[in-house]
Amino acid sequence: MLPKKISALLIAFLCSTIGFSSNATALRDPTLPGNFSGKTDVETDSSNNTLVLNSVVKNNASAYAVINNQIFTLGERVKGVKIVEIADDSVSLADGRKLTMFQAITDFKGQ
Asked: DSSP per residue over the chain, as a string?
């Protein structure tokens, strides 16, 4: 049998660790941005029709457009709209929209 002092310390230690573990779920993660509600905004992304042209890669045989961080070729559909033209710095869609790259991407310093 353990001496009374050791058993009292063991009981005190166990009680204190149980208290810490039950409070751990209430603690806020300090690496999260302020006012974080824990909810994600997935529904907004699926209904959002904003298209961003990230880049265009062309050679003699083919052309690729990176739109919303996904790769597309001529004739493919992005969010249901067909790509009808891929130029050096823009993409034309069947619904009349023309996506252009951010100006700083197409400009060269010193020219």
From this structure: ---HHHHHHHHHHHHHHHHHHHHGGGSPPTTSPTT--S---HHHHHH-----EEEEEE-SS-EEEEETTEEEETT-EETTEEEEEE-SSEEEETTS-EEE--HHHH--TT-
Token output for 17: 């660790």
pLDDT in tens, the chain (111 residues): 556 667 677 777 776 666 555 555 566 666 766 654 554 444 444 445 789 999 999 988 899 999 999 999 999 999 999 999 999 899 999 999 999 987 655 556 555
pTM, two decimals, is 0.51
